[in-house]
Queue: 4 jobs
Job 1
Amino acid sequence: MLGAHLEAEIREQPDVWRRIATSDAAQRFAATVAGCDIVFLGSGSSLFVAMLAALAWRRRGVRARALAATEARFDHVMSSDACVVALSQSGRSTDLLGALDLIALGPAPLEMTAFAKGLAQWVTIAAPLALLAPVIVTALGAPMRLAPIIVTGGLVGGLSFCFLGGVGAALSLGSRRGGVLIALIVLPLFTPPVIFGAGAIEAFGAGLDWRTPLLLLSAYSLAATALCPFAMAAAARNAIS
């Protein structure tokens, strides 16, 4: 199947180049980017196309350069004032889309970007799961009166999970066995919020002091939220250096 797709791509190249030769897209693009620096982004084979495009535009007297999508993640400040052209065969390249996200954020520090990514993960994943948790535990036989503490613990503890997971992902950048490395780094850090959250729920159900474990969980989550973006940014910079 892979060979059939490759053969089809090779056979369609003459028609593609004929359409390009008869198109006025190049003239319209030149009029659009007149007076601007151009940065061509690519990943894999698209990066070679980006290099050829940058070379062609430099020969026309336009300041242009090609940049790998992985490098653009850490050079997005330099690319924020240029006309960025992203090249991708599938249009779904993770590195390319991530680089475009960073460029769209403008000259924001990497620490701020890491914080925004962690917070976005909490809003889109952890918070909905925490709100859904009472329904799940009730279906498993837990009393409904535990719903408030379950939601609170899920919301607070989920915040630490998102940022600690981000640290593990950043530390595994460039590693051949990133999944194993993430498990070794993150799982021990997940233990305290699990203990504090379970302790708060158990104490609430037994009528004991549940505020102390919940406060410990809150302090742990706040510390993770404050410190993890710096660790994520440092790990990302180290991976590219």
Job 2
Amino acid sequence: MAGFDFDFLVGIYPALLQATLVTLALTGVSLIAGFGIGFFTGWARVSPRFWIRAASTAYVEVVRGTPLVVQIFVIYSMFPALLPDARVPAFWAVSRWLLTTAGDIEVQGDRTSGEVEYALIAHEGRTFVAVASDQTDRHFEQYSIPRSKQLCPKVLSREVVVLDEVIDRWDGISLTSEISADGQIWHDYQRATLEALLDPGALVRGACGDEALPDGTVLLSGTVPLVDGVTRYLPHFRAELVIPHFATPLRLTYSVSILPDEPSEDATT
């Protein structure tokens, strides 16, 4: 079939197999649970006790009278927020040596891509803001998100601003990223304002609870949606954080080099 990537299918086969087993397990649990709920509800509908019949009738009417998509939305979006131990967003620690302000980075594999974020940097009791790119191995992300983050450098802008100087206009700050195949012609990749992300206070509370951001910590915010929803693996990436009424945007630009899969005679070991 023209255009079909069989190598990619082979690569994700373990994940597909695991997903199939999970699906079968969920199907089995659903059948057992559904039978149990149906049996109990049927018994309750004919119970001589009025309050049992009323509760059963209310349950049936709500389930039957509510579109399934609404039920899924409520379960997926609202219930987790009521759980005391829910962690949204999720945070993963990566090695400090991955942080860089370089204009060139090296990665393993041809399925890595950047994504624009803002970064909070705690230094000597103050918090600074930078623009960042969380380069990630998208192929490995299918198996382990933390390890996929660990495989690629995290690029920061060389310029930073003090958080206290821009917090009053935070929601109006914009994040943009562009990608290029040749470093000459650039295409919009991401575009949003920081209103779409957690504000710095919420971000720090999510990562550290009631504690302050520890000195020497760099905390990335999470990213914004892609313009067209399609992940692209191009070798040039640049991003901007534009602050209203601020003279110069925070910028970063870098190129991605893919290391060879096969050892070479002149390679450093």
Job 3
Amino acid sequence: MSSGKPISEESPILLPLPWDSEFFRSRLGRIQAAPRAKMEKALAAARQEGYSCLYFNAAAGWDEGLRWAARAGFFPVGLRVSLAAPAGPTPEDPERPVGEDRSPEGEKALIRWAVEELSPFSRYARDPLFGEAEARRLYRHWAAATLDGQRAQVVLFADAPGEKPAGFLSLRTAGGEISIDLVAVSPSCRGRGWGRALLRAALGRAAEGGYPSLRVATQGNNTAALAAYGAAGFKIETIEHCFHIHLNEEKAKPERKTLAEAEEL
């Protein structure tokens, strides 16, 4: 993942994205933040090599990168906000139980909330050449990969008496760090402390695993999530502007599916 700040001289500037390319059935890549001349050279190479779409992140305050993105033809698709909080044991809330026990009902809810509640905030939903159907397809795949252990090592479920499930939160470990991968609370349970209970449980799991902190990244337009993280002690570490550019609109355009077709996948 790009930090949105210029990288070292040795790092590659144009990065192919095999998983994204396979999933969206189009050749996708990322331009790493670097001195302007190097980014221009990488962009020219991407055009020559037949890339369809490129991602680019620029850290907030990096004016040169933001100006270059605008001149090069990239368009904004959102803000990526990265936060962290110290891990630590937290007392359980007996009125809001959280655990790893799962039920068919809970698994179905996880997929439904990922698609219906989280995908609208995705940068892909804001890109007209991907759009709502592709964003929903991505989040349906993401949720399924969470449940079968491909993405997340821990999935926590919250069960509200008489209204279960109340919400879920998944944890992913990589590169010596632990982070929140997906989290959602049932619309009927919001504002009743269930999100806070899930976050407190996640901080406790991070501490049990020996991690000093718990990290999360979310979209800047998800103001409810940002408020919940702030209330739970998370502090903003970085803010990045996210951009896309389509080098060949016909090649970049994924094989279009209607919303109904996407739901069947």
Job 4
Amino acid sequence: MEQPLTAGDRPKAPSGRTGWRRFRPASEAVKAFFRAPPVRAATAWLLASYLRLTLASMRWRFENREPVDVAAAAPEGVIGCFWHGCIGLAPVVGPLMQDKPRRVLISPSPDGEFIARVVGRLGFPALRGTSALTDKRRFLAGAFTFHDAMKFILAGGVIVITPDGPRGPAQVMPVGPVAMARVRGTKVFLCGLAASRVIALKSWDRTRIPLPFARGCAVFVGPLTVPKVSGEAAIEAVRLDWQTQLNAAQARAEALVRQA
């Protein structure tokens, strides 16, 4: 009778990068397939088209919209923040910005490239970088992006940030958006977004993809500002306050869409 192979008898993957590619797990092969430029471009087009049609089919409620309309009509630039998991719902706020130019801060990662393609097709061109600024390496890597974002704001544009992206932890506000708003006293709006019927992905942020004809809600908080002269403790207090307020707005939006 044939004996089962022991761990020592099982064939080993060949050493060296080229040999190992033949034995990559199926999940890695699938990931590589979807990251191929032609596949990524086609998938981004399909997702953007789906979101455009779905968001248009939904019944939307906007809470505390008046200050947003005032800011959209003013010449000054603003910063908008929503949690990364709501990125599939966020394009609905685009029309509220009227003719104001806008950019979305998106990480330079491969996944960020895909998101940039999707939101770009939905009227939100990307500015590649990170708002985390949680360590020296990230701060230096994002210095040029920070500078470009400030120039865009000074020209009257809107910078949109998902503060907890690209890796989380989910719904935790880093100091980056506070630092950006502090430079010129830029007004900041926080936005909670929810839909009554969604597909929640099994990702770190539980990304929500809305389903057609659902009820949607956007809850705005702001405008908020940061004093120019602030110590480290004061900046941390603002960061924590914004995190609390954005989580409250998110909870409020989710509660409203659950109502009959």
